[in-house]
């Protein structure tokens, strides 16, 4: 019989303890600087206090920037899941290989996503998530081009059969890129 799984704390609790640990280590540095001031050299005490104050301000500023970046990425990830959900019309259509015509709602959802996410506000600050988003955007762009080409072609031609295979491969690439971004977002955020 397998051992029961060890309970894990929510990530917010872990972040809180990580922040507390950083604050305590900073307090130790400040106290060490103060204790060093017990020596007769008062100029060294002033230098140590100034260095500790500068380090404290830099630490607080860096911690705030990190929190803001993480919050931006979490909000962007929630927006991504809302605009291109795994159970939405666009991805449901892509899971059915071999269909010739795409529902207009599915194509419009993919076009809306592609045009709406090509701006600075829609970029992840986490470079790894950003690279997965760009990969998804490229895959959607290829799929939309092939889908438009397929819609214009004749249904009985040999080229149509080749296009059908390429569209199916592009649809699989979009699904894979979407799943990878969802998985990485859950893992990192």
Can you tell me about this structure?
Helix 4 crosses helix 5 (127-152) and helix 5 runs antiparallel to helix 6. Residues 4-9 have low confidence and may be disordered. The chain folds into two domains: 13-70; 84-188, no CATH class. The chain is rod-shaped, with a radius of gyration of 26 Å. It is built from six helices and no strands. Helix content is 76%, strand content 0%. It has 189 residues and is mainly alpha-helical.
**How many structural domains can be distinguished in the coordinates?**
2
Order of helices and strands: HHHHHH
Largest sheet: none
Give the overall shape.
rod-shaped
The low-confidence parts are 4-9
Structural class: mainly alpha
- For the terminal residues, how far apart are their CA atoms? 33 Å
Q: What share of residues is helical?
A: over 70%
Per DSSP, the total helix count is 6
**Portion in strands:** under 5%
The number of E-state strands comes to: 0
What gyration radius follows from the Cα positions, in whole Å? 26 Å
Query: How confident is the prediction overall: mean pLDDT?
Result: 78
Features:
189 residues; mainly alpha; 2 domains; rod-shaped
SSE topology:
Layout (H helix, E strand, L loop, with lengths): L10 H26 L5 H42 L5 H6 L9 H13 L10 H26 L5 H31 L1
């Amino acid at each position: 019989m397998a051992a029961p799984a060890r309970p894990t704390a929510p990530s917010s609790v872990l972040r809180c303890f990580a922040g507390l640990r950083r604050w305590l280590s900073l307090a130790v540095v400040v106290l060490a600087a103060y204790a060093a001031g017990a020596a007769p050299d008062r100029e060294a005490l002033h230098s140590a206090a100034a260095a500790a104050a500068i380090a404290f301000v830099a630490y607080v500023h860096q911690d705030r920037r990190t929190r803001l970046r993480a919050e931006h990425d979490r909000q962007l990830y929630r927006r991504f899941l809302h605009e291109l959900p795994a159970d939405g019309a666009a991805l449901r259509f892509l899971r059915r290989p071999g269909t010739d015509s795409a529902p207009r709602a599915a194509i419009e959802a993919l076009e809306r996503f592609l045009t709406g996410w090509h701006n600075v506000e829609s970029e992840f600050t986490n470079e790894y998530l950003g690279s997965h988003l760009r990969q998804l955007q490229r895959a959607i762009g290829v799929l939309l081009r092939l889908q438009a080409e397929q819609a214009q072609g004749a249904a009985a031609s040999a080229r149509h059969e080749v296009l059908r295979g390429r569209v199916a491969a592009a649809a699989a690439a979009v699904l894979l890129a979407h799943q990878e971004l969802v998985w990485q977002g859950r893992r990192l955020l």
